[in-house]
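Researcher: I'd like a structural prediction for the single chain below. Treat it as a standalone chain; there are no partners to consider.
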Amino acid sequence: MSLLRRAAVAAASAFLALASPAVGAAAQPSDTVRVEVTRDAGGWRADYAFARDARAWVFARSELTREGGKPWRPQAWTIETPGVRIERRGFHDVLVASKGMVPRKVRVRFRPFTEDLRAGYEPALVFSDGPVALFTSQFDVAPLVSAAMAEAIPYDFDASGITGDPAFVTFRDPEGPVFYAGKRYPLLTLKETPSYVLFGAAHPIETPDLSAILDPGLPAWIGTSLGSETPRLLAHYARELGPREGPRPMMMATWAGATKGRVSMGGSVLPGLVIMAFEGERMLAPSAETHAYFQWFIAHEAAHFWLGQTVDYDRADHAWMMEGGADLLAVRAIAAIDPAYDPRPKLDEAIAQCGALAKGKAVNRANERSEQEAYYACGAVFGLVAEGAANRARPGTGFAGFWRRLIERNRADGVVSQDDWLRALAMLGDPSLAADIRRMAERGVADPEAAMRSLFDRAGVAYRIDDEGRLRLP
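Model: Treating it as a single chain, here is the predicted structure.
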């Protein structure tokens, strides 16, 4: 459910790290940030060593908590180095000194933070039998002339133009080797590689299609369904979208317990890795409602191995292509595999949400408003338009066919830009569709429902207006 963050761009670094399990100090340039992450009798710590003086260091990933909308680092990190603190400036957390330069060496004590974030990867995954997986990129920083400079950095750090010193993060566990990308390492150093490194025992379940580390506390039906449905969905997408890039997928699935009255599923995809987290009393047994949502959840995350990994978006502002695209691909995939599944409730919900979240507001700016749901909802609506136009131009193409052509055209560089997506839509026969979607994405419209009706009419998407005047699929 979390938005993808530049996974494809960093994939090359991940593969380099795999080739060399421990990158030694001699291999690191002199202008580096070095971080050692380990645990001792006092708990978890991250020791920073900076190669230069700076008045502030900004964290590239500083998402807010889903519940409460608060920065997570001040809740979980304690700076032990005197005179150094963490501040929130604009959209980002910043490491600053009380006066002058930040010391060249800074020690942070932290607790693994497991709460869901609105648009980012959870900093930690904790398995019920003890192992902990840490998100590697939570430690990445870049130097600033002043803390105030952070206030001008956009939500999408990659769009800021700031190029920090190379960050080498070393993971070390006194209790034994750490686990990364299917292998154990006594010492692991990664360079700016978004992934998870697991501390503690892990016993992957190996199949021809998937390697999985499943929390032993997971309800049995979840583990069984993950093992059976995920390979089936991956095979379906491969037929529809073409071959995916990257190694055989690995899955990590955690269980946070049977919290009373709660049903929670969260997930995200990184190069070669799908992360899933489950919680709630209502997850103990598969009701019809829970199982339908579970199907969609697995199908959405599996779709990201193509939309987000085989090709990625060009800017975080354009996440609607991947998130809404994965939503629509998911309901189409489930309907193809399970004839009893009805995709209309999920798509009707997307139409309603898009109408509410895009009223007078640019979809592309949803991150800045903490309204990330707009990427999913309006992205699915835009996908319905592309699906209708594709079927009208070439009957039977479907939304998967629309994306298959985009993937093949952009497989070489691994990036599908918003312009690429809109150009592909315009080529299907009616350029005004692409122009109107661009308007909703970049500027917003006063009446999204009227805009969606117009788009559906021209693309050949059937719909109805219910008794309360709401736009729905037939």
